[in-house]
Amino acid sequence: MPTPGAPTLKVVSHPLVQHKLTLLRDKDTHSGDFRRLCREITLLAAYEALADLPLVDTTVETPLTTTAASRLAGPAPAVIGILRAGLVMVDAVLELLPQSPVGHLGMYRDPVTHLPVDYYAKLPDEMARREVLVVDPMLATGGSAAHAIDVVKAAGSTNIRLLSIIGCPEGAAVVHAAHPDVAITVAGMDERLNDHKYIVPGLGDAGDRIYGTR
Ligand code: PRP
Ligand code: URA
After folding, report:
1. If you measure from the C-alpha of residue 108 to the centroid of ligand 1, how many angstroms do you get, rounded to a whole number?
2. 130-170: per-residue pLDDT in tens?
3. What are 8-45's pLDDT values in tens digits?
4. Distance between terminal CA atoms of the chain?
5. What three-state secondary structure class fits 137?
6. How far is ligand 2, taken at its centre, from the CA of residue 203, in Å?
7. Whether the model pTM is above 0.85
8. Considering only CA atoms, which residue is closest to atom 7 of ligand 2?
9. What distances in angstroms separate CA 182 from CA 81, 158, 160, 163, one per listed residue?
10. Residue 198 DSSP class
11. Ligand 2, residues 205, 208, 211, 213: which to mutate, most atoms within 8 A of Cβ?
12. Which of 4, 81, 96, 150 is the right S-S partner for 90, CB 3.0 to 4.6 Å?
């Protein structure tokens, strides 16, 4: 039973997610399969990350009758992708939320300081009224995710979730310390960071593996 008010961290334990994660980690998985696996894992994990989206009552006319029903409350949730690697997750989430507007936050980790460096930001309108899902495959030091959430909050958002494919304790702690109100969902929670701030065992550099760069 979660402690009320405590930061939330969900690790998706579904066997399909764990199986696909193993294939994703494999160093011999090439870009095409890597992108497909990211998409499939995102679909399954987003189902968990979005499990508490608020609903409102409505009615629907079926071919037979009119019946009480539910629909998502408010304007469509915003999906915010952290570039580059988050793009592959955005496309997957849009299959579940086709009406959602998309925001892009461009940042890369400085190779020496490992701190995020901004190069682009474009967010949808009405951020204060929308539920928000920030997506990035890797939650390593947590610097990129925490900074992205800063930007989203500065646009007025208050209901924010973070979805990553692989996290580690250090990254989750950094995000929770900066943003205790943000629920984190990961498909896998790994052991630690190495000296270069890569997740171990991890999967290497997500952006490079998605886009076939080095
Ligand atoms: C990766 C990843 C995250 C970030 C995570 O991006 O996609 O955005 O690193 O690391 P952190 O938790 O330590 O901040 P990268 O900086 O490699 O950029 P890319 O997606 O453009 O390759
Ligand atoms: N970014 C990645 O792509 N992988 C890591 O392990 C850490 C940061």
Report:
1. 6
2. 999 999 999 999 999 999 999 999 999 999 999 999 999 99
3. 999 999 999 999 999 999 999 999 999 999 999 999 99
4. 43
5. coil
6. 8
7. yes
8. 198
9. 16, 9, 6, 10
10. -
11. 205
12. 81
